[in-house]
Amino acid sequence: MTTAPSGAGGVRRHRPARPLPGPLLALTLAAALLVGCSSSQPVQPEVTRVASADAGTVRTAADGVQEITVETGDDYEFTPDTFTVAPGQVRLTLLNSGEQMTHNLLFSEGAGPAEITEQIPVLGPGLSKTIEFTVTEPGEYPFECSFHLALGQVGTMTVSLPG
Ligand SMILES: [Cu+2]
After folding, report:
1. CATH of the domain at 138
2. Over the range 76-108, which residues count as b (16 or more CB within 10 Å of their CB) and which as e?
3. Neighbouring-strand partners of residue 94
4. Which residues constitute the domain of residue 133?
5. How far is the CA of 130 from the centre of ligand 1 (A)?
């Protein structure tokens, strides 16, 4: 027996014969244009991460300290990348919900109204770490992941006016 049966003979191409209705065609074109526009932006990794419910909300813990969770993952984003606290003690948790990437969080040296030296020097995937510090000077305190600073992984903590 030398002849193997071939399945290639039965393949047929199916093409949709009906043209798209007018409005749907317009929508399709509009979507294509939008895609075209966004492709001219700087290339960023696609963010598929959905921040957990705890991320991003400044709340007051049972001991009276205001606390916030900032999340990061297999991308170059802090979620949230901006938040506001009142003067006083702050408990900041960095949660790395990624599976591959390691991040850190430190307040950019010399960038805020006062220095915050507390930092999370390294945080592997799947981990979280908490720091506490006290802020008194109102203003904007930029922070960064120093590993991915060039990729734009930055954020800003605002300390509001007292009262
Ligand atoms: Cu990072």
Report:
1. 2.60.40.420
2. bbbbbbebebbbebbbbbbbbbbeebebbbbbb
3. 70, 129
4. 59-159
5. 16
Distance 16 CA to ligand 1 centre (A): 46
Q: What is the pLDDT of residues 15-41, one digit of tens each?
A: 444 554 555 444 444 444 444 444 445
- 13 belongs to a structural domain: no
Read off the pTM.
Answer: 0.70
Position 120 pLDDT exceeds 80: yes
**35 falls within a domain:** no
Number of domains in the chain: 1
The CA 111 to ligand 1 mean position distance, Å, reads 19
Distance 56 CA to ligand 1 centre (A): 17
Quick one: how far is CA 29 from the chain centroid?
A: 30
DSSP state at residue 56 = T
Phi, psi of 106 (to 5 degrees): -145, 150
**Distance (Å) from CA 76 to ligand 1 centroid:** 6
Rounded Cα gap, residues 24 and 137, in angstroms: 55
Tell me how far the alpha carbon of residue 153 lies from the centroid of ligand 1, in angstroms: 6
